[in-house]
Description:
- The chain has 57 residues and is of the alpha+beta class.
- Helix content is 33%, strand content 30%.
- The chain has a two-stranded parallel ribbon with strand order 1-2.
- The longest helix has 12 residues, at 30-41.
Amino acid sequence: xxxxxxxxxxxxxxxxxxxxxxxxxxxxxxxxxxxxxxxxxxxxxxxxxxxxxxxxx
Length: 57
C-alpha cells in the first residue's frame, strides 16, 4: 500500500509555515527556520510564512 501511495503521490507540494508563540518571532524562531530549510531541500514550494505573537494573559 505504501509503495503504491509513493508511486502516485506528488513529489512536490505547496506548504505554509506558521509560528504561534508568546516569545518568538520569525527572526528568532529556530524550529520554523529549520522547517523551511527542510521543505526547501525537498523541493517543496513554501507559499506562505507567518508569525503570530500571542500575548500572555
